Amino acid sequence: MSTSLKTEGLVVVGAHTILGELLIEKLEANPDIEKFWVIDLHPPTRGKFKKLQFIKMNLTQPAADALLAEKLKEIGAKTLVHCALKNNPSHNPGDAHELEVIGTINILSALKAAQLTKFVVCSTTMVYGASPKNPNYISESAPLASHPESHFVRDKVDAEKQIAALQSDEPTIKVSVLRFALIVGPRSENYFTELLRRPIVPTLLGYDPLLQFIHEEDAVYALLLATFGDYAGVFNIVGKGVIPLSYALREAGKINFPVAPFFAYPFIQVLWNFNISSMPGKLLDYFRYLWVADGEKAREVMKFNPKYSSKEAFLDLAKNVRIQEFSWAQ
Amino acid sequence: MGTVKSIAQKKKGSFWDHKILRELAEELERYYSDPSSFDPKKLEALAFEFFNELKKVLKEVGVLSQMKQGLKSKAPTAFGFLKKALHLIQSDEVDDFGLDRKFELSIKPFFDFLFTHYFRVSVSGIENIPNEGRALVVANHSGVLPYDAAMIKIAIFNEHPARRELRFLVDDFVFHFPFLGILMNRIGGVRACPENAERLLKSDELIAVFPEGIKGISKKFSDRYRLQRFGRGGAVRLAFKTQSPIIPVAVVGAEEIHPLLYKSTTLARPLGIPFFPVTPTFPWLGPLGAIPLPTKWTIQIGKPITYPSITSREINDGILINRETEKLRETIQKMVLELLKERRSVFFSD
After folding, report:
1. Domain B62-257+292-342 in this protein, CATH class
2. Helix/strand/coil percentages in chain A, nearest 5
3. B262 CB near a chain A CB, below 8 Å?
4. pLDDT in 10s for each residue of chain B, 350 residues
5. Helices B234-242 & B318-342, crossing angle to 10 degrees?
6. What residues of A are in contact with residue B89 (Cβ under 8 Å)?
7. A110, A229, A292, B36: least surrounded by Cβ within 10 Å?
8. Contacts of B176 in chain A (CB under 8 A)
9. Nearest by Cα to A234 from A277, A292, A187, A295
10. Model-level pTM?
11. Pairing between strand B276-278 and B262-264?
12. Given A208, A261, A289, which is nearest B90 (Cβ)?
């Protein structure tokens, strides 16, 4: 999977999302790589890195694009992996918007100016939106959610639109967009895994959507494939199969507390405002309707075969949640 | 009333000889032939008596206890029942499209009852369903509530030697609804869209489509057995694209289960449903009015129609698709008319 040419001038943006963290560790462990660069506000905290060169930069500051372009030229960057799209909804949507949309625009302008050849983005299948009008398996060519209510999803859709524009404007840059399903695993921390840290989980009365997961190991493997291989285009990175939400909660030993949707949206929003819920009410649509993506293209083109199915990935998470609960109780 | 007990002990179908049922059926049949003689009060009184009888018959046949056993529920307390109802739709094992076989089997006794005792469905041509491989079952759609889909599913599952699982494509509005959406999904329904249908056929499943869609189930009683436009030819295009045979199916008897007198779209809009039905019993009798009338059904499964393989350009040929769709519609219409010619009574098998 690795050719020596592609390992030069590798830049990772975002060291504190789950994929950023795991990717940096994998790159550090890869003997073919002599040096790579990481751009973020704060250096990575986990582990010791010898090959890693940290560049401190705020992507949202004015003229960040020019600064980034200069840096990229200076280090002779060839490939940029964009892992700075947030895993979790933010209590400060304004800041999140600055980072995700404006930050992405800055990265894209810098890419063009510094004439990079490859650009990999970690997005999410949430951009398709959850709706009863979705097919059971959404393909990459499906339109993105047109007016998502949640800031979290809207920013991602916005960022993806900018990236799609780059794809058509600059054919010399190979752009791979990876849309990941819910990433779960022992180290993942997102709004869904947070949900399982509570004994009682509110669900929507009368709805039991089919959920799809990808294990973090599989996710980072797909990211490495895209970074070192030549796979331009959009790919859904998802585990095989689906599991119903109610089954997931039972496996994790949680109490399923159904709330009528009419009350649930404001109720969860209030809990979110008080920092009790791990997600705002507007994200509840994702626990109501279908948003399962079709991973066929990644299997065929990238030869990406996830080790864990959706169910196995979830059970791995559930196991870890139980272990943590047990050690808390001790 | 001593007759009730003997009713259940008699052979299947013979309890339809009961006086009230016969009176009710005759009243309805008279009304079907001459709408001006409609006497709502008499019908209402008869209907109430009929529902009382039905309750007893249900008890005798033991459907409810069978279903209860299927769900393994214990003594029904109010809380226990609520909990059960919530857990009813929670699945352990679902396949890629959300079908839960365990749940399906637990509610099957109810549909089996409808199939053998209530609608007394007679099925012909079951051998036209292939033992394996993809096929597209296309049927006429009627009866306000989609009992016809359920009956075709049961017919194929019970009477076909390979006991094939039929999946059906469901209009999107169903998935907006609490409970109904999950229920439909867990018993094998998926949203009707080309992506889903193609994927299912490519994995060699047997799927049912009702190209008349909402227009079919919402046709007025005066238009009964007059097949509506077959959508935009999606079924035929799908058959061409995936090279699957189309099996035409005609259902007779479903039109009269809920005779639709009037449909209101104004009332339907706030409820999020495509139309609000007004039948002789609904909404006048409340939830009781939603009980279908016990008509006698016939399902005829026709010979499979295979299509030659064509180029991708021809698939986009609207005229060809439209012509084939119209041909298919005529085939099913003809089958329906022939069954109607043979039928002597709406309610009785003899």
Report:
1. alpha beta
2. 45, 20, 40
3. no
4. 334 444 444 444 455 566 777 777 777 777 777 777 777 777 778 778 877 877 777 777 776 676 666 555 455 555 555 666 656 556 778 889 989 888 888 889 999 999 999 999 999 999 999 999 999 999 999 988 889 999 999 999 999 999 999 999 998 888 888 888 888 899 899 999 999 999 999 999 999 999 998 888 888 888 889 999 998 888 999 999 999 999 999 999 999 999 998 888 888 888 888 888 888 888 888 888 888 999 999 999 999 999 988 887 778 888 999 999 999 999 999 999 999 999 988 888 76
5. 110
6. 208, 246
7. B36
8. 132
9. A295
10. 0.82
11. antiparallel
12. A208
Range of the domain at A151: 10-322
H or E stretch at A97: helix A93-97
CB < 8 Å from A in window 63-102 of B: 86, 89-92, 94, 96-98
DSSP state of A252: T
Chain A residue with minimal CA distance to B82? A258
Q: Cα–Cα distance between B152 and B144 in angstroms, integer?
A: 16
Q: Is the peptide bond before B283 cis (omega within 30 degrees of 0)?
A: yes
- Residue A155 within any structural domain of the chain: yes
* A196 contacts A85 by C-beta, under 8 angstroms: no
Strand B298-301 relative to strand B246-252: parallel, antiparallel, unpaired? antiparallel
Domain boundaries, chain B: 62-257+292-342
Residue B120 gets the label, from left (phi > 0), alpha (psi -120 to 50) or beta, of left
Using CA atoms of B335, B340, B342, B348 in order, give the dihedral in degrees to the nearest 10. 130
Q: Decide if A330 is inside a domain.
A: no
A210-211 and A243-244 beta bridge pairing: antiparallel
CATH at A191: 3.40.50.720
Number of domains chain A is built from:
1
Tell me if A4 is assigned to some domain: no
Alpha-helical segments (H) within A142-233: 151-169, 191-195, 216-228
Q: What's the CA gap between A20 and A120, in Å, rounded?
A: 12
Residue A153 to residue B347: CA distance in whole angstroms:
55
A2 assigned to some structural domain: no
Report the candidate in A132, A257, A213 with the shortest Cα–Cα distance to residue B87: A257
End-to-end CA gap in chain B: 25
Helix (H, G, I), strand (E, B) or coil at A88: coil
Residues 6+ apart with CB under 8 A from A34: A7, A51
Q: Which of B96, B175, B196 sits opposite A132 (nearest CB)?
A: B175
What chain B residue is nearest to A257 in terms of C-alpha separation?
B86
Measure the CA–CA gap between A320 and A314, rounded to whole angstroms. 10
Nearest chain B Cα distance for residue A21, angstroms: 32
Q: Which of A220, A176, A189 is nearest to A25 (CA)?
A: A220
Interchain proximity B98–A134, CB inside 8 Å: no
Residue B195 and residue B169 in contact, taking contact as beta carbons nearer than 8 Å: no
Backbone φ and ψ for A205, nearest 5 degrees, come out as -65, 125
Cβ(B260)–Cβ(B144) under 8 Å? yes
Q: Are A193 and A184 in contact (CB under 8 A)?
A: yes
Helix axes A151-169 and A103-114, enclosed angle (nearest 10): 20
